[in-house]
Design a protein that fits this description.
alpha+beta; Glutaredoxin; five-stranded mixed sheet; two-stranded antiparallel sheet; 15 strands
Length: about 270
């Protein structure tokens, strides 16, 4: 019969199960802990001054490989904030000069603040990197913590505009990562092909959505044309054709005509 072997405790030392320190990150709806920290140029940055705007708070580390992998996505995302009120703040730790060099190398334009050891990470309840919290306009966490590159990228896609070109760049980098991974080549090519197809269909979907929004209320998108819902139907999306009467195999019939299925053409309506 197996018996549990208890390990002697050092005075004042608690096990992980006994510790009350949160280690899985603050949950959604929690008031985000305030902070005022110096950025890598010595300028004090406080969370309070961002109240009323959404903030993506990313915890990083200069020696963290996945953090370096995430860096270009943060840069491209921040460049999309021209029409968005969401901000990005990176919290890092360690040597000031090393962090300054890393930020310059990556081209960071958003604030990069320096915490003392894990002091702020402790308040947010997680000690891993990279992790990200979305803080809402009301100062509360808008969702559970995002852990790792993939989860943080998903957050960035939701919080910021994502154009077709930017999606293509992200997909290209993802495919490159897959093809350079140690998985079998056949499997890697299959995954890469699936990712490319998914990006293509997504772009098509975004274009359709954009056209539909441009048409406005009371109209239906027909290719790049807008058909009036009250008296028109979309006949041929490929040629942007709206019909005010009957659509017959891609052609609009005149009033007084019907569509003949036998001849696949518009014919004069027979009046008894």
């Amino acid at each position: 019969m197996d018996t549990e072997i208890s390990q002697p405790k050092l005075p004042g030392r608690k096990s992980l199960t006994e510790s009350r320190i949160e280690r899985n990150g603050l949950s959604a709806g929690t008031i985000a802990p305030e902070f005022t920290l110096p950025d890598i140029n010595g300028v004090p940055i406080s969370l309070e001054k961002y109240r009323g705007r959404r903030v993506v708070l990313v915890f990083s580390d200069p020696h963290c490989g996945p953090c370096a992998e995430l860096a270009p996505y943060l840069v491209r995302t921040y460049q999309r904030r021209r029409e968005i009120t969401t901000e990005i703040i990176v919290v890092t730790r360690g040597d000031l000069e090393e962090n300054r060099q890393k930020a310059e190398a990556h081209g960071f334009e958003f604030p990069v603040v320096l915490q003392h050891r894990w002091k702020l990470s402790k308040k947010y309840g997680i000690f891993a990197t990279p992790v990200a919290f979305v803080i809402g306009e009301d100062g509360r966490t808008a969702r559970d913590v995002a852990v790792g590159v993939d989860q943080i990228r998903a957050v960035l896609h939701e919080e910021f505009l994502h154009t077709a070109v930017e999606r293509f760049i992200d997909t290209r980098e993802d495919i490159s990562r897959v093809l350079s991974s140690p998985i079998p080549r056949r499997q890697a090519f299959r995954i890469a092909a699936s990712m490319a197809a998914g990006a293509l269909f997504s772009v098509i979907g975004m274009q359709k959505t954009a056209i539909a929004l441009a048409c406005g209320t009371g109209f239906t998108a027909c290719g790049t044309a807008c058909c009036n819902n009250s008296n028109q139907v979309c006949c041929t999306p490929t040629t942007n054709t709206c019909c005010g009467n009957v659509c017959c195999y891609g052609k609009c019939c005149d009033f007084g005509q019907v569509c003949s299925n036998s001849t696949m053409s518009c014919v004069k309506q027979f009046m008894p």
